[in-house]
Amino acid sequence: DVKVTQSSRYLVKRTGEKVFLECVQDMDHENMFWYRQDPGLGLRLIYFSYDVKMKEKGDIPEGYSVSREKKERFSLILESASTNQTSMYLCASRLTGGHQPQHFGDGTRLSIL
Amino acid sequence: AQSVSQHNHHVILSEAASLELGCNYSYGGTVNLFWYVQYPGQHLQLLLKYFSGDPLVKGIKGFEAEFIKSKFSFNLRKPSVQWSDTAEYFCAVNTANTGKLIFGQGTTLQVKP
Question: Which residues of B60-96 are buried (b: 16+ CB within 10 A; e: fewer)?
Fold first, then answer.
């Protein structure tokens, strides 16, 4: 069974802090994704990565960056956290191919004060 | 821009009632279609998917969905819901020319015992 592990379930940070969210998958998946989930808006794609060292902007990349130095790990970085980045953040991974399902982590509920 | 629309945002049913959740997408080319479910406190998990073949697909826990290409729809159905089906349901579409999965806004299903 695929396991996608996000480093924190809950996180509280202050405005202006640099925040790191970590995600690790154990199934050698090439593709990894970061979403944010907000009520009434569904999941919105922030960034994704097709493979190591590769990254592509999603639909809402502003204020975020990512790092993929190893295949199994995909990090989301909030450069200078703001209150409008308070949200649930979901990481996902999948094998290459649009028909492949994505496998999700449990999510990190991030609050920016 | 490609989009996915779920018509019902909040559905309340009694146990044993039949369920149909609507999903429409805006893209004229080849698509891969998914329904995901998020039970309270759990991660998103795949219910079912369609990428080719029989347009009526069966998933886990008695769910099924029908792809109607002419209507750009992929509605989710279950003949008889249970209290344990209480969850949030997301329709998602992946087009053949992008690696991105686009999610609908989600439908919250509440099943009364």
Answer: eeebbbbbeeeebbbbbebeebeeebbbbbbbbbbbe
